[in-house]
Amino acid sequence: MSPLVRNNMTGRISKRGMLARALDVTGCGRMLRSTFVWDGVLTLNYHRIGDRHNSLLDRNLWSATDEDFDSQISTIAREFDVVGLNDLDSIIGKKHGRFVMVTFDDGYLDNYTNAFPILKAHGVTATFFITTGFLDIPKVPWWDEIAWMVRTSRESLLGDNRWTSNPVQFDEPDREGAINELLTLYKRLSGDLTDGFLDFLADALKTGRCPVQVARKLWMSWDMIREMKQTGMTFGGHTVNHPILANLSAEQQEAEIAPCKQRLVEELGGPIDAFSYPIGGAKSFNDDTRFLLAKHGFKWVFTYLGGYCRHNHTDRFALPRTAIETDVDLPMFRAIATLPQVFA
Predict the structure, then answer these.
(1) Dihedral angle at the C-alpha atoms of 194, 200, 206, 210, nearest 10 degrees?
(2) Has residue 4 been placed in a domain?
(3) N- to C-terminal Cα distance for the chain?
(4) Gap between the Cα atoms of 336 and 340, Å rounded
(5) Same structural domain for residues 258 and 201?
(6) Burial of 268 from C-beta contacts in 10 A (0-12 / 13-18 / 19+)
(7) Which of 213, 232, 256 is a domain's end point?
(8) Are residue 36 and residue 168 in the same domain, yes or no?
(9) How confident is the model at residue 12, as a pLDDT?
(10) pLDDT value at residue 126
(11) Residue 134 and residue 151 share a domain
């Protein structure tokens, strides 16, 4: 669960948001950051950086504006020990130490155009988990395509059908509620049904599937990633096509995990020993997933479950990460880094 500062429906500041602001205003946060009130590794996770307004795609994928990201990276660079993937061996298991790690999922182009210059400017390394199929043959991912179909449809609702229990009303003007409802449904589907569901939406909403031209502007290139690697950025796997692995058979999961690592090694060289679960919730991976990741030599595997990695954490196939999203303002960001046991 992400640490929301505001209720998206009412715009009211949450209790945690008010507490975060109080830490900022009173100076208590600054005082706490100068002491060691927690030990471990706080891994922050981002997706997209930039302006999400007016996008036809899934706006929840934007983690921060350029300005907010710059402020966040400046904060951790100034006040914390920022570590990278290659440091984990030496710090996991230590009894003391407070570390922050920065990660990104998917491989969106703005990771290179927007986030990379800011990271370099502050001397901060980050780890990028790449969905290799999106780079090799660009396509619009299922979450962005569902958002695009709902937003571009001239229909006012999705009527009775065999997929949803009730008609889905399109809440105007942004239709966020309808998009979230359909995304939730997609996440529950067996991998054998997902393409059929997208085809159904394309027909029912009278939009067709999202044009491939949109995909050509979405993803980084391998040349960009190699340039980033030369400056100290590190990379890991995030499957070939970003399915929800637990919804696939073991054979289908292997077809997503093994070729992903192979492509990363081919393009970047080895070793590639880190992976993040697509979606990353507790139901997004299973024992088959863990077995296959170990089989293919992955050493560090990250979830999206929130929290931070305490020094007594022993499960390297379920390392926690905390989501940074556009609802996280700077006081909340500082609170997450200051007291992750409360805010992360």
Answers:
(1) 20
(2) no
(3) 9
(4) 5
(5) no
(6) middle
(7) 213
(8) no
(9) 53
(10) 98
(11) no
Question: pLDDT tens digits for 200-231?
Answer: 999 999 999 999 999 999 999 999 999 999 99
Residue 68 and residue 252: Cα distance in Å, rounded?
A: 39
Query: Is 131 a residue whose pLDDT tops 60?
Result: yes
Average of per-residue pLDDT across 318-326? 96
Residue 274: which CATH number?
Answer: 3.20.20.370
* pTM for the full predicted model: 0.94
Q: Is 292 helix (H, G, I), strand (E, B) or coil?
A: helix
Q: What is the mean pLDDT of residues 310-339?
A: 93
Q: What is the pLDDT of residues 266-279, one digit of tens each?
A: 999 989 999 999 99
CA 299 vs. chain centroid, Å, equals 19
β-pairing, 168-169 vs 157-158, is antiparallel
Tokens of 276: 């993040």
Q: Are residues 63 and 202 in the same domain?
A: no
Which residues make Cβ contacts (< 8 Å) with residue 3, sequence separation at least 6?
A: 16, 306, 322, 323, 328, 332, 336, 343, 344
Please answer whether residues 20 and 5 qualify as being in contact, where contact means their C-beta atoms are separated by less than 8 angstroms.
Answer: yes
| 236 plus 279 within the same structural domain | yes
Q: Tell me the C-alpha distance between 243 and 241, whole Å.
A: 6
Final residue in a domain of this structure, among 171, 198, 213 = 213
Angle at 117 between CA 113 and CA 121, to 5 degrees: 170
Q: Which helix (H) or strand (E) is 234 found in, with range?
A: strand 234-237
Residue 263 amino acid letter? R
State both tokens at 65.
Answer: 């504006």
51 shares its domain with 195: no
* Residue 67 shares a structural domain with residue 36: yes
- Per the structure, the complete domain to which residue 173 belongs is given by 142-213
The string of DSSP codes covering 49-108 is ES--TT-SS-GGGEEE-HHHHHHHHHHHHHHSEEE-GGGHHHHTT-SS-EEEEEEEEE-B
Please give the single-letter amino acid code of residue 270: G
